[in-house]
Automatic annotation (TrEMBL):
The chain crosses the membrane at residues 12-35, 41-61, 73-91, 97-117, 129-148, 163-182, 202-219, 225-241, 248-267. It comes from Flavobacterium soyae. This is Prenyltransferase. Keywords: Membrane, Transmembrane, Transmembrane helix.
């Protein structure tokens, strides 16, 4: 049992799980826009997520706080290094415009982690900004990149899907912020810190309604039913979220929502 927990912890701490969630959203983008499976694009996002998230999570830990580097962190560093190589490999298989946009997303991620401006903290610590930066990066990586790499003309449907994807990620982050309320710096002004847990849950419920309704404009009946199942599942996650929940509640179960969504689309 202890070994299984160690494996699960490594799986989560190394960002493989969140990378799989991003990969699932890329596959969902392929499905919605009838894009043939593009392996370089999908794996670029998968390995890029590992690199980006590990950079965000462990940069301050090692560079600023000078924490001792244990065996797990060393393995994660090796995994991240291999992921950097694979990101570089798949980068050169993308269209030029996709490469440019991906560099912009990487720049935003770097800004999120490193303090580029004098006497200012990194964007991760800017009051009230974190949730929007993360949501925009997810939309850019999992929807915009696959779309432009497929060289599809921009349509109203594309912008509707962007709004839906942003709302989905925004709601997922709300659950994280509810659980992290006791540990987050008050100066971050996260949504629960600003309006309280009860109103944050109401906000999450409210956002999921137009998320599903907008799908009526472009989804098939099959996709609408699957989306409804996903919306109900997310509402349950929001309802039962509280500061006493285990970290696995968000780090594993909540981040699994895009994976379950993809599997339902693929196999139901």
């Amino acid at each position: 049992m202890k070994l299984l927990k160690q494996i699960l912890d490594f799986y989560l701490n190394s960002s493989i799980h969140v990378a799989l969630s991003c990969y699932a959203l890329v596959r969902i983008t392929f499905h919605f826009f009838h894009i043939q499976y593009d392996e370089p694009m999908a794996l670029f996002v998968f390995f890029g997520t590992i690199v980006g998230y590990n950079f965000v999570k462990y940069d301050a830990l090692v560079r600023v706080k000078r924490k001792p580097v244990g065996i797990q962190l060393k393995i994660i560093a090796v995994l991240s290094f291999l992921s950097v190589i694979l990101v570089g490999y798949y980068f050169f298989h993308l269209k030029r415009i996709t490469q440019i946009v991906s560099v912009v997303i990487f720049a935003i991620t770097t800004l999120y982690t490193l303090p580029f401006f004098p006497n200012r903290k990194n964007a991760r610590n800017w009051a009230g900004v974190k949730i929007y930066i993360v949501a925009l990066c997810w939309v850019g990586a999992t929807l915009v990149l696959p779309y432009i790499n497929a060289e599809i003309p921009f349509t109203a449907d594309f912008f509707i899907k962007c709004i839906q994807r942003f709302v989905l990620v925004f709601v997922l982050i709300l659950v994280f912020e509810i659980l992290d309320l006791a540990n987050d710096d008050p100066h971050l002004q996260t949504v629960p810190q600003t309006i309280g847990v009860k109103r944050t849950k109401i906000l999450g419920f409210s956002l999921l309604v137009p998320f599903w309704v907008l799908g009526i404009l472009s989804f098939t009946l099959h996709d609408l039913i699957i989306n409804l199942i996903m919306v109900v599942t997310l509402m349950l996650f929001i309802f039962f979220a509280n500061t006493n929940r285990s970290r696995y509640y968000t780090s594993f179960w909540v981040e699994s929502v895009p994976i379950f969504w993809w599997l339902m689309i693929a196999f139901l």
